[in-house]
TrEMBL record:
Transmembrane segments: 111-131
Upper classification of the organism: Eukaryota, Viridiplantae, Streptophyta, Embryophyta, Tracheophyta
Recorded superkingdom: Eukaryota
Protein name listed in UniProt: Uncharacterized protein
Keyword Membrane: yes
Organism annotation: Panicum miliaceum
Keywords: Membrane, Transmembrane, Transmembrane helix
Amino acid sequence: MKRKLQDNGYWVTLLSSPRNTRRLISIPPDLEGLVRVVDVPLPCVERLPEDAEAIIDLPSDDLRPCLRRAFDAAFSAKLSDILQASRSDWVLIDYAAYWAPAAAARHGVPCAFLSVFGAAALGFFGPPAALMGLGEHGKTKLEHLTSVPDYVTLPSSLLQFALCCAVRFRVPLQ
């Protein structure tokens, strides 16, 4: 990817929280002119520990929704600011930034999601709204994880969790 960036003259803006940029991002010297790292401080959110900027920083999984709220508040505003201030060719997201495609569309910029999960897993979990417990396919009960989703039309019992596995997921129970 590095060679492609150089050869085509693309430059990239990476958004991350300050601790994550120090912990994870190392820009090779020959790409320093093409890659800009923007630290996005997370706002204070009730119950979120002061230095928590990633899941690894959380003392308990129960605090993930707090981190999610801080992430959404900080990054959605910063992405809109960057898209308004500069000409961007693409927005690439690699996390659960469900608001990014709408922000990119408002600025006429295409958006793509890069996932560490395969297409089958993404198909099972459904669209972002379903993961948030919203919409027609919202996953709000454990039973939604232990049966094949109704939007999957091929016959398979592999597209469901056993109850003992489903309880490990944090569905937004209503």
